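Below is how a single chain appears once it has passed through the pipeline. First comes the sequence as given, then the structure the pipeline wrote out for it. We keep one example in the README because the format questions we get most often are answered faster by looking than by reading.
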Amino acid sequence: MLLKCSAMLLAAVLIVPAAAAQISPDARLFQNPERDGAVFTGMYLDGQLRYQQWNQRGFQSDFWLLGPTFATSFAALPRLETGGRVWLVHSDPSGLSSETRFSDIDLWGKFQFIDDPILLSFGLLFTVPTGNKKLFHPVASNEFNLELFGAGRYYFSEVLALVGHLGFRFNANARWQYRTTDEEIVIDPDGREITVGTSKVKVEEKFNGRAQIMMGAGLIYYASSAIDLSCEVDFASQAYRGMKKDFKLTGGLTYWFGQDFSGRVGLGMGFDEGSPTSELILGAGAFF
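Resulting structure:
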Protein backbone atom coordinates (compact mmCIF):
# COMPACT_ATOMS: atom_id res chain seq x y z
CA MET A 1 0.00 0.00 0.00
CA LEU A 2 2.81 2.41 0.85
CA LEU A 3 4.47 1.72 -2.51
CA LYS A 4 1.17 2.43 -4.27
CA CYS A 5 0.73 5.75 -2.42
CA SER A 6 4.36 6.65 -3.13
CA ALA A 7 3.95 5.94 -6.84
CA MET A 8 0.82 8.11 -7.03
CA LEU A 9 2.47 11.06 -5.32
CA LEU A 10 5.69 10.74 -7.33
CA ALA A 11 3.62 10.69 -10.52
CA ALA A 12 1.92 13.90 -9.40
CA VAL A 13 5.32 15.48 -8.81
CA LEU A 14 6.39 14.65 -12.36
CA ILE A 15 3.19 16.09 -13.83
CA VAL A 16 2.90 19.27 -11.73
CA PRO A 17 5.80 21.76 -11.89
CA ALA A 18 7.68 22.27 -8.64
CA ALA A 19 6.41 25.11 -6.50
CA ALA A 20 8.70 27.91 -5.42
CA ALA A 21 8.07 27.39 -1.71
CA GLN A 22 9.10 24.32 0.26
CA ILE A 23 6.58 22.25 2.22
CA SER A 24 5.99 23.91 5.56
CA PRO A 25 7.31 22.10 8.66
CA ASP A 26 3.81 22.71 10.05
CA ALA A 27 2.27 20.41 7.41
CA ARG A 28 1.76 17.08 9.18
CA LEU A 29 0.42 13.59 8.66
CA PHE A 30 -2.99 12.80 10.15
CA GLN A 31 -2.53 10.05 12.70
CA ASN A 32 0.17 11.28 15.10
CA PRO A 33 1.53 14.74 14.26
CA GLU A 34 4.13 14.53 17.03
CA ARG A 35 5.88 11.64 15.26
CA ASP A 36 7.66 13.89 12.77
CA GLY A 37 11.23 15.11 12.51
CA ALA A 38 9.96 18.68 12.03
CA VAL A 39 9.03 20.98 14.90
CA PHE A 40 6.03 23.32 14.83
CA THR A 41 7.11 26.90 14.16
CA GLY A 42 4.75 28.38 16.76
CA MET A 43 1.65 27.67 18.80
CA TYR A 44 -0.74 25.27 17.07
CA LEU A 45 -4.29 24.18 17.96
CA ASP A 46 -6.06 21.46 16.01
CA GLY A 47 -9.63 20.30 16.59
CA GLN A 48 -10.75 16.98 15.13
CA LEU A 49 -13.87 14.86 14.77
CA ARG A 50 -13.27 11.19 14.03
CA TYR A 51 -15.77 8.48 13.18
CA GLN A 52 -14.43 4.93 13.49
CA GLN A 53 -15.84 1.46 12.93
CA TRP A 54 -14.20 -1.38 14.87
CA ASN A 55 -14.51 -5.17 14.84
CA GLN A 56 -12.67 -6.41 17.91
CA ARG A 57 -13.04 -9.44 20.19
CA GLY A 58 -16.36 -10.32 18.54
CA PHE A 59 -17.88 -6.86 19.08
CA GLN A 60 -18.73 -4.50 16.25
CA SER A 61 -18.53 -0.94 17.54
CA ASP A 62 -18.98 2.59 16.26
CA PHE A 63 -16.90 5.31 17.89
CA TRP A 64 -17.08 9.09 17.70
CA LEU A 65 -14.05 11.03 18.94
CA LEU A 66 -14.02 14.80 19.36
CA GLY A 67 -11.11 16.72 20.79
CA PRO A 68 -8.21 19.16 20.51
CA THR A 69 -4.50 18.67 19.92
CA PHE A 70 -2.22 21.44 21.14
CA ALA A 71 1.47 21.85 20.30
CA THR A 72 4.01 24.64 20.52
CA SER A 73 7.68 25.49 20.16
CA PHE A 74 9.53 28.25 22.02
CA ALA A 75 11.48 31.27 20.78
CA ALA A 76 14.30 30.53 23.25
CA LEU A 77 14.33 26.81 22.33
CA PRO A 78 13.09 26.59 18.71
CA ARG A 79 14.04 22.90 18.43
CA LEU A 80 11.87 21.88 21.38
CA GLU A 81 8.21 20.97 20.82
CA THR A 82 5.70 20.14 23.54
CA GLY A 83 2.07 19.20 23.14
CA GLY A 84 -1.01 17.45 24.42
CA ARG A 85 -4.17 15.76 23.22
CA VAL A 86 -7.49 14.61 24.73
CA TRP A 87 -10.72 13.18 23.31
CA LEU A 88 -14.37 13.00 24.23
CA VAL A 89 -15.27 9.46 23.12
CA HIS A 90 -18.72 8.05 22.39
CA SER A 91 -18.89 4.27 21.91
CA ASP A 92 -21.82 2.27 20.56
CA PRO A 93 -20.91 -1.45 20.65
CA SER A 94 -23.37 -3.96 19.22
CA GLY A 95 -25.37 -5.70 21.92
CA LEU A 96 -24.02 -3.50 24.72
CA SER A 97 -24.95 -0.12 26.17
CA SER A 98 -23.38 2.98 24.69
CA GLU A 99 -20.93 5.10 26.69
CA THR A 100 -19.62 8.66 26.47
CA ARG A 101 -16.40 9.29 28.41
CA PHE A 102 -13.14 11.19 28.25
CA SER A 103 -9.99 9.54 26.94
CA ASP A 104 -6.61 9.53 28.60
CA ILE A 105 -4.58 12.71 28.12
CA ASP A 106 -1.48 12.41 25.93
CA LEU A 107 1.42 14.72 26.82
CA TRP A 108 4.68 14.80 24.90
CA GLY A 109 7.97 16.59 24.49
CA LYS A 110 10.25 16.34 21.46
CA PHE A 111 13.69 17.74 20.63
CA GLN A 112 15.10 18.12 17.12
CA PHE A 113 18.81 17.33 17.21
CA ILE A 114 19.58 17.30 13.45
CA ASP A 115 18.15 19.63 10.80
CA ASP A 116 20.39 19.09 7.76
CA PRO A 117 20.28 17.21 5.40
CA ILE A 118 17.51 15.36 7.25
CA LEU A 119 15.33 16.48 10.15
CA LEU A 120 15.67 14.08 13.10
CA SER A 121 13.90 14.33 16.45
CA PHE A 122 13.62 12.24 19.59
CA GLY A 123 10.51 12.37 21.76
CA LEU A 124 8.81 11.05 24.87
CA LEU A 125 5.05 10.74 25.36
CA PHE A 126 3.10 9.58 28.40
CA THR A 127 -0.60 9.19 29.11
CA VAL A 128 -2.43 10.63 32.12
CA PRO A 129 -5.13 8.10 33.18
CA THR A 130 -8.28 10.17 32.72
CA GLY A 131 -9.99 7.47 30.65
CA ASN A 132 -12.60 5.03 31.89
CA LYS A 133 -12.68 1.24 32.12
CA LYS A 134 -16.18 1.32 30.60
CA LEU A 135 -14.60 2.33 27.29
CA PHE A 136 -12.76 -0.27 25.22
CA HIS A 137 -10.56 1.89 22.98
CA PRO A 138 -6.78 2.44 22.63
CA VAL A 139 -7.05 6.11 23.69
CA ALA A 140 -8.88 5.27 26.95
CA SER A 141 -6.89 2.67 28.90
CA ASN A 142 -7.19 4.67 32.16
CA GLU A 143 -3.55 3.80 32.93
CA PHE A 144 -0.12 5.42 32.78
CA ASN A 145 1.60 4.43 29.52
CA LEU A 146 4.93 5.56 28.09
CA GLU A 147 6.23 6.05 24.54
CA LEU A 148 9.77 6.67 23.31
CA PHE A 149 10.11 7.51 19.64
CA GLY A 150 12.48 8.80 17.01
CA ALA A 151 11.13 10.59 13.96
CA GLY A 152 12.55 11.95 10.74
CA ARG A 153 11.64 14.10 7.76
CA TYR A 154 13.45 14.22 4.44
CA TYR A 155 12.66 16.60 1.58
CA PHE A 156 12.96 14.83 -1.76
CA SER A 157 12.19 18.14 -3.44
CA GLU A 158 10.48 21.43 -2.69
CA VAL A 159 7.09 19.73 -3.04
CA LEU A 160 7.58 16.23 -1.62
CA ALA A 161 8.59 15.17 1.90
CA LEU A 162 9.02 11.73 3.45
CA VAL A 163 8.09 11.42 7.15
CA GLY A 164 8.83 8.33 9.24
CA HIS A 165 9.02 7.16 12.83
CA LEU A 166 10.20 4.25 14.94
CA GLY A 167 9.42 3.84 18.62
CA PHE A 168 8.38 1.77 21.59
CA ARG A 169 5.29 2.01 23.78
CA PHE A 170 5.06 0.43 27.22
CA ASN A 171 1.44 -0.38 28.10
CA ALA A 172 0.25 -0.99 31.65
CA ASN A 173 -2.35 -3.64 32.41
CA ALA A 174 -5.87 -2.48 31.59
CA ARG A 175 -9.47 -3.41 32.33
CA TRP A 176 -12.73 -3.24 30.41
CA GLN A 177 -16.03 -3.29 32.25
CA TYR A 178 -19.40 -3.74 30.56
CA ARG A 179 -22.88 -5.11 31.18
CA THR A 180 -24.40 -7.91 29.17
CA THR A 181 -27.79 -9.60 29.24
CA ASP A 182 -28.05 -13.03 30.91
CA GLU A 183 -31.12 -15.09 30.00
CA GLU A 184 -32.76 -17.54 32.41
CA ILE A 185 -33.86 -20.55 30.38
CA VAL A 186 -35.94 -23.57 31.48
CA ILE A 187 -36.82 -26.76 29.63
CA ASP A 188 -40.52 -27.56 29.34
CA PRO A 189 -41.90 -31.15 29.46
CA ASP A 190 -41.64 -31.35 25.65
CA GLY A 191 -37.90 -30.54 25.75
CA ARG A 192 -38.26 -26.99 24.43
CA GLU A 193 -36.15 -24.12 25.76
CA ILE A 194 -38.21 -21.26 27.21
CA THR A 195 -36.79 -17.93 28.34
CA VAL A 196 -38.46 -17.00 31.62
CA GLY A 197 -36.44 -13.92 32.48
CA THR A 198 -33.40 -11.77 31.78
CA SER A 199 -30.95 -9.90 33.96
CA LYS A 200 -28.04 -7.54 33.47
CA VAL A 201 -24.66 -9.00 34.42
CA LYS A 202 -21.54 -6.91 34.97
CA VAL A 203 -18.46 -8.33 33.24
CA GLU A 204 -14.88 -7.18 33.71
CA GLU A 205 -12.08 -8.30 31.42
CA LYS A 206 -8.42 -7.82 32.28
CA PHE A 207 -5.66 -7.31 29.71
CA ASN A 208 -1.95 -7.75 30.32
CA GLY A 209 -0.05 -4.84 28.83
CA ARG A 210 2.84 -5.44 26.47
CA ALA A 211 5.72 -3.43 25.05
CA GLN A 212 4.83 -2.39 21.52
CA ILE A 213 7.05 -1.70 18.55
CA MET A 214 5.68 1.24 16.55
CA MET A 215 6.73 2.24 13.05
CA GLY A 216 5.30 4.17 10.18
CA ALA A 217 6.04 6.23 7.09
CA GLY A 218 4.19 8.68 4.93
CA LEU A 219 4.48 11.25 2.18
CA ILE A 220 3.35 14.88 2.14
CA TYR A 221 2.90 16.48 -1.27
CA TYR A 222 2.67 20.25 -1.75
CA ALA A 223 0.00 20.29 -4.48
CA SER A 224 -0.46 24.07 -4.45
CA SER A 225 -0.12 27.05 -2.15
CA ALA A 226 -3.45 26.03 -0.60
CA ILE A 227 -3.43 22.21 -0.74
CA ASP A 228 -1.26 19.52 0.83
CA LEU A 229 -1.91 15.84 0.11
CA SER A 230 -0.69 13.01 2.33
CA CYS A 231 -0.61 9.24 2.50
CA GLU A 232 0.72 7.16 5.42
CA VAL A 233 1.05 3.62 6.71
CA ASP A 234 1.28 2.91 10.45
CA PHE A 235 2.05 -0.33 12.26
CA ALA A 236 2.20 -1.28 15.94
CA SER A 237 2.56 -4.71 17.50
CA GLN A 238 0.10 -6.04 20.10
CA ALA A 239 -0.76 -3.60 22.88
CA TYR A 240 -2.10 -6.36 25.17
CA ARG A 241 -1.63 -10.10 25.36
CA GLY A 242 -4.14 -11.86 23.14
CA MET A 243 -4.97 -8.72 21.14
CA LYS A 244 -4.30 -8.06 17.46
CA LYS A 245 -1.81 -5.75 15.74
CA ASP A 246 -2.51 -2.16 14.70
CA PHE A 247 -1.95 -1.84 10.95
CA LYS A 248 -3.65 0.94 9.02
CA LEU A 249 -3.48 3.14 5.93
CA THR A 250 -4.57 6.80 5.97
CA GLY A 251 -4.84 9.38 3.20
CA GLY A 252 -5.82 13.01 3.55
CA LEU A 253 -6.08 16.52 2.20
CA THR A 254 -5.25 19.75 4.03
CA TYR A 255 -6.60 23.04 2.68
CA TRP A 256 -4.90 26.23 3.89
CA PHE A 257 -7.02 29.36 4.33
CA GLY A 258 -3.98 31.63 4.36
CA GLN A 259 -0.95 30.90 6.52
CA ASP A 260 -2.68 30.52 9.89
CA PHE A 261 -5.84 28.45 9.30
CA SER A 262 -6.45 25.07 7.70
CA GLY A 263 -9.21 22.54 7.14
CA ARG A 264 -8.49 18.81 6.92
CA VAL A 265 -10.27 15.70 5.73
CA GLY A 266 -8.88 12.17 5.85
CA LEU A 267 -9.94 8.57 5.26
CA GLY A 268 -8.40 5.51 6.85
CA MET A 269 -8.73 1.74 6.72
CA GLY A 270 -7.36 -1.01 8.94
CA PHE A 271 -5.93 -4.42 8.09
CA ASP A 272 -6.06 -6.07 11.52
CA GLU A 273 -8.39 -5.99 14.54
CA GLY A 274 -6.02 -3.71 16.47
CA SER A 275 -7.03 -0.79 14.24
CA PRO A 276 -10.40 0.55 13.04
CA THR A 277 -11.75 -1.14 9.94
CA SER A 278 -12.64 2.32 8.59
CA GLU A 279 -12.16 5.89 9.75
CA LEU A 280 -13.29 9.36 8.71
CA ILE A 281 -11.30 12.37 9.98
CA LEU A 282 -12.48 16.00 9.86
CA GLY A 283 -10.37 18.74 11.38
CA ALA A 284 -9.53 22.41 11.54
CA GLY A 285 -6.23 23.93 12.66
CA ALA A 286 -5.02 27.38 13.65
CA PHE A 287 -1.64 28.99 14.43
CA PHE A 288 -1.22 31.74 17.00
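The chain has one domain: 2-172+210-287.

See the next section for the split statistics.
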